[in-house]
Amino acid sequence: MNVGWNGDCNNPRPVDSPVPDDVDLSKWSASSWSDDKGSRVPASSVQNVRLDPDNSVHYISALSYSPNDSKPTVTSSITALINTTTGQSFNNTQYRVFMNRPNGCPKAVVEYDTPVDITWFGDIYEEKEIGVNPDSTIGVSQTVQIRANVRTKNYGDTDYGSNPWVDVTNRASETTWESEDTSIATGCCWI
Prior knowledge:
Elements: E1 17-24, E2 33-34, E3 40-41, E4 47-51, E5 57-59, E6 66-67, E7 73-74, E8 79-86, E9 94-100, E10 106-111, E11 116-118, E12 120-123, E13 127-133, E14 147-153, E15 166-167, E16 176-178, E17 188-190
Region (Disordered): 1-44
């Protein structure tokens, strides 16, 4: 970004200026993922990676800039408007002279980093298999007592491996049975 400079021949610096920038934050992707219980999740299992408009990007206090708003504004699933002021009153992160002017004064590139904390959000899917015993046919509106067992395929796995069956027969308050076809009693199970 080009802004005015302080006119100091021996130590040229940009004057303090607002620097609004809509930044693609996907360059700084998540270094690790965990689910809502804190368990690690392989990055390959995370889908629909995105920034959350309310809770994804926050300024980190630094001597290189001053924020112009309370937090960056998320503008898309991967971008945020970072609106700061920086320049000669702040500590630069890098200073590189790249040539001298005809009058001998240095011409320099001055960098002021704007550190932010980024929290990425994504979706993970768990697949469950249910086994019921006895396996029987019943009529509409009939009820039958069954024993139900569920096993879970771990995030990103292609099979159930050695994951154990878990008896969910007595978890009526946690289990919902649904089907789009009201003539059948089988369907999905949410635990």
